[in-house]
Amino acid sequence: NAGVTQTPKFRVLKTGQSMTLLCAQDMNHEYMYWYRQDPGMGLRLIHYSVGEGTTAKGEVPDGYNVSRLKKQNFLLGLESAAPSQTSVYFCASSYLRLAGGPGETQYFGPGTRLLVL
Amino acid sequence: LAKTTQPISMDSYEGQEVNITCSHNNIATNDYITWYQQFPSQGPRFIIQGYKTKVTNEVASLFIPADRKSSTLSLPRVSLSDTAVYYCLVGPIWKMDSNYQLIWGAGTKLIIKP
């Protein structure tokens, strides 16, 4: 199993350009997440999805859009990139386990470094 | 929303037990407490999760007092490879919560010395 993969690993954009970050998971997880992480800070949730065809806003959704047309893929789009969106973007997937007591583990991808000039 | 507070950094030595405490005074009834480890240029990795009392797995223990306003991650006999940033995460695992949010702390940078 590849786990969670992210494409691309690194990208440089000019202000106003658009791009799409791709996240793929092969664990058949229901839930998927997009986070951003800025230097010296924790992760902040951008958007999340509880299943194919459904998405919801997280803590910092402005400037981003997402889609989950297939269960294994979660796309993050930047329609008009801004320097404030320079960050490392992490995708994660998870499932809700009930055996042995409820719990959830998020599995993270390696991240995408985005620089907006 | 439950805000978390952790020490910015900690130092310890190989073979010692390390305890990292996270404060979450406004934790909600539906919230769980999860700890993740992150190495440079990698995504976070799950360590342990709990709701109340004590949880132990093969790598760590998690202590949660009765009021759940704080939690302590305990790493027994640390090694140099445990040098990383440790995050405390508080939030519900049930996604149907209309106020679903995940609040990550700023992380504790743990440095293990030989």
Task: Please give a structural write-up.
The complex is a heterodimer of chains A (117) and B (114). Chain A is mostly beta strands. Chain A is 0% helix and 56% strand. In chain A, the strands form 2 sheets. In chain A, strands 2, 4, 5, 6, 9, 10 and 11 form a 7-stranded mixed beta sheet that branches. A 4-stranded antiparallel beta sheet of chain A has the order 1-3-8-7, with no helix packed on it. With 114 residues, chain B is mainly beta. In chain B, strands 1, 3, 4, 8, 9 and 10 form a 6-stranded mixed beta sheet that branches. Chain B has a 4-stranded antiparallel beta sheet with strand order 2-7-6-5, with no helix packed on it. The model of chain B has no long low-confidence stretch (mean pLDDT 91). Chain A binds chain B through residues 4, 31, 33, 40-45, 48, 50, 56, 58-59, 90, 92, 96, 102-111, and chain B through 32, 34, 36, 41-46, 49, 87, 93-95, 100-107.
Would you summarize the structure shown here?
The complex is a heterodimer of chains A (117) and B (114). Chain A contains no helices and eleven strands.
Instruction: Using a beta-carbon cutoff below 8 angstroms, give the protein chain pair with the largest interface and the number of residues from each chain.
Output: A-B, 27 and 22 residues
Number of strands of chain B: 10
Shape of chain B: globular
What is the H/E string of chain A?
EEEEEEEEEEE
Straight-line N-to-C gap of chain B:
39 Å
Main beta-sheet annotation of chain A: 7 strands, mixed
Structural class of chain A: mainly beta
Which percent band covers the strand fraction of chain A?
Answer: over 45%
Q: Unreliable stretches of chain B, pLDDT < 50, 5 or more residues?
A: none
